[in-house]
Amino acid sequence: MPNVEDLLKSTMTEIERVLDAKTVVGPPVTHGDTTVVPLVSVGFGFAAGGGAGNVASGDKASAKAEGGGGMGAGGGGGVKPVAVVIIEKDSVRLESIKGTAITVMEKVVDVVDKVATRSQNKRNKDSDDETGD
Questions:
Q1: 3-class DSSP state for residue 91?
Q2: What span, in angstroms and rounded, lies between the C-alpha atoms of 67 and 56?
Q3: Which of 35, 49, 53, 116 makes a 20 to 30 Å CA pair with 12?
Q4: How far apart are CA 17 and CA 132, in angstroms?
Q5: Residues 107, 113: Cα–Cα separation, whole Å
């Protein structure tokens, strides 16, 4: 059944389009001297199949056969955040993310808060150094 082959090829082409390095390593987000790079786990599964055959009609006396066939494909996938790489001026670290999307947002908010606090502290220190305090 040549249509099944076409179906598989088009399915694989689409999966290859979706699965690239940008899918697993997200775009970096920079704030001040800190850059955060999200890492995600991507999983996909799919199946396709088809068949054709002859089905005898209800009239056994005529032994007339009718053609029958069918095909289909199905799949599913998911994307789950697993970690963030935090690149700071003097260090690089990997922070694991476990749990739900709420946990991910909490982690992002926590990192942004730490970065903002460090930036503010640095600005305050630089300001104090300039005024001689």
A1: coil
A2: 9
A3: 53
A4: 58
A5: 10
